[in-house]
Amino acid sequence: MLAVLAELRNEQYGYTLRKSLAEQGVEIDEGTLYPLLRRLESQGLLVSEWREEDKRNKRFYRISREGKVILKQLLSEWQSIGRSLESVLKES
Amino acid sequence: MELLDRYLQAVRFWLPKAQRDDIAAELSEDIRSQIEERESALARPLNDSEVAGILKQHGRPFLVANRFRPQQHLIGPVLFPIYGFVLKVVAAFYLLPWVLVWIGLNVSRAAHSGKSLMEALASLWTAFWPMAFFIVGAITVVFAVLERVEAKSKFLDQWDPRKLPPVRDPNRIPVSATFTEVTFNLVFAIWLVAGMWYQTSLHFSGVSITLAPVWPYLFWSFFSLTAANILASGANLFRPYWTKTRALVRLVSDCIGSALFCWLLKANVFLSISVKEVAPEKTARVASAINWWAEKMFPFAIAACLVILLFDVYRIIRVSREPRRNGLLNQIHAATH
């Protein structure tokens, strides 16, 4: 979810989003990605619109204002968990 | 692209109605992009089996559509363990005894009426399933309703640790059980001494019963066993814990009790009964019916005795295997009291 929100700071459609996440090592299959995109949109964290590109209709997603706030909170939580884990692993 | 259209049609069928077109269009776009990318890499159009490969990778239409639906379940993971436990309890304490009693009654009836055993078992098959389905169905419906109520009221979150049951020690003999045993044995001993003694001829309220010559042996055996049981149960009042020795003593006592009871059933104890103003033929029929039923009860008595003895053996194994657990329980008792 964090990766999807971060990646959608730049507008993309489903297929290119999946590819760019995969290129960065975050493999999400379409059966998981599309339901996730819809859930995030229904929660108001993403906005989407159908637009024509290369003579085909595609649904483009981007992060909403509320999504940006949540992304910031999630990032700080993630970093805090990372620091805690690092400290635990160092001790052991 | 006929294969793709067929795939999308199959997915659409299972999609939620309100979002059907939207999801299908997006899915179609994703798959088309994938096909195009592969075609440009190969510099030729994909054949049917290659398209089929891509579709197969996406997944079975029903499963793909299912991911877009809200998660639904009849009984969720919170209540499911309790549901499973209730089903097991019902199976062990209702369905299994029902089957055993049913088999017993019908086998005996079949033997009496000359029906074949297979006929009796076939009617068990037809009688059991509707009853079992009804019970399991009723329990499932109750839990499905509880699931909905729990989702709204969260009643499982309302609990008090102080209401949890106390730590249970399986090797402790409850005082209530000891009192019950002592009372039962005392009443039996008094009944034996006051009513039956060891004579073979009994007279009360105009009824005379003549018992078989074997009765005095049975009497003294039952009396001695009951007296020994009263002493053993009395000792439990002062040291209320099962030990290996006590469990062995109980096994021996139950073995003797079972053997005596089975002997009693086989012994044709009632020689004759006479009642004032009742024809001797009638009372002879009663005496013979009592002996007949006693003999018919023999296999059930054997089964019941086996269950009791198996439980006794299990108790010995449990007491022998659990010294560590007992030590832990003692530590808990010491820490909390």
In short:
The complex is a heterodimer of chains A (92) and B (337). With 92 residues, chain A is α+β, with helices and mostly antiparallel strands.
Q: How would you characterize this protein structure?
A:
By secondary structure, chain A is an alpha+beta fold. Chain A has one domain (2-91): Arc Repressor Mutant, subunit A (Orthogonal Bundle), CATH 1.10.10. Chain A has helices at 2-7, 14-23, 30-42, 65-91, and strands spanning 12-13, 46-53, 56-63. Chain A has a three-stranded antiparallel β-sheet. Chain A is elongated and about 55 Å long. Chain B is mostly helical and 337 residues long. In chain B, strands 1-2-3 form a three-stranded antiparallel β-sheet. In chain B, α8 packs antiparallel against α9 (244-266) and α9 runs antiparallel to α11. The model of chain B has no long low-confidence stretch (mean pLDDT 86).
**First CA to last CA of chain A: what distance?**
30 Å
**Share of helix of chain B, binned:** over 70%
Strand composition percent of chain A: 15-25%
Quaternary state of the chains: heterodimer
Round the mean pLDDT of chain B to the nearest integer and report it. 86
Instruction: Let me know the number of strands of chain A.
Output: 3
Judged by helices, strands and strand pairing, the structural class of chain A is alpha+beta
- Assigned CATH architecture of chain A: Orthogonal Bundle
Q: Give the overall shape of chain A, derived from the CA principal axes.
A: elongated
Radius of gyration of chain A: 16 Å
Regions of chain A with pLDDT < 50 over 5+ consecutive residues? none
The major pleated sheet of chain B works out as: 3 strands, antiparallel
CATH classification, class level of chain A: Mainly Alpha
At the fourth CATH level, what is the homologous superfamily of chain A?
A: Winged helix-like DNA-binding domain superfamily/Winged helix DNA-binding domain
